Amino acid sequence: YLARGEQALSFCVRQDGSIPPIGDSPLYRSGIDSINHSKFFPESGFLVIKDDSLYVSLVCGSRSDNHKQVDDSSLTLHYGGEDLIVDGGSYCYDSTDPFRKYLVSFRGHSGVFSEAVADLTAKMYLYKRKYALIEEFSESVDGRFAKARYAHEVDNLECERRILVDYLGGFLIADRARADNPSSVFYQSFILAPHLRLLENNGSEVVFEGERFGVVITQLRSAECLVEYGLTEPAVAGWCSINWREKEPAHQVRFVQQGGSAHYLTKIQVYDVRKGRGASALASYPSGKSVARLYS
User: Which residues are registered as beta bridge partners of 92?
Assistant: First the structure.
């Protein structure tokens, strides 16, 4: 069992052997050798899409409720040793701390959810959650495909996330959500790594740059775009905690739709800062065939 556990951890660590702050845990720098291949853990509701440069995680479901955050549908993106889209982290275990409340809730994650469940504690969320699972994962010449979904008793909320990651840095996300309340407010949220700089925001496309890589998030469906950074009033927003007991302001992008249902189609591009957005081979768009795969 020990050998199997060590092998599983080798799939979960990043390429440098570090354990990312996903869920209720800070960053750990281990000496574990990474296995740079994708791995699906269906019973744990956890997926790692991974190669020599790319690390994408997807959470939906859990083996147990212990230390489970409200993070169903949440994803992260790490490329070439650099964080791009992150999990909010844990910060501390003081349940009365406003930053802890934010980071544990849906608001502190890069997922899809409604306003009605946005501030639920983990205990209340899990008490009324109907199900949460990663239903499918496959790899083909077109890319790596995954489908996850969850449902909750509040407003009979149902959310589904489909992702397709190609082999050149192209990343597509198709999210669907519905609720019995015809006036529901839905969010598709992304927390950017705290070191990233906001370069552009035209309402449907936001661009961030880091030390070596940049990321472009493009919303292809009609939605209001909110970008928040280090807010404490009227509510905490735009923060993350990479290391234990340390919190940092971070850009948080939220695409907002209202009504009884929501549909998002989001394109994420990674590019090499030295080459620029247009020149980088990483900046290629996923093909129309890839889009069709998301809805098949």
Answer: none
Interval 171-203: pLDDT, tens? 899 999 999 999 999 999 999 999 999 999 999
10 Å Cβ neighbour count for 291?
16
In tens, the pLDDT along 239-264 reads 999 999 999 999 999 999 999 999 99
Q: Please check whether residue 171 is in contact with residue 270, taking contact to mean a CB–CB distance below 8 angstroms.
A: yes
Alpha-carbon distances of 63 from 11, 59, 66, 67, 68, rounded to whole Å: 18, 11, 9, 11, 9
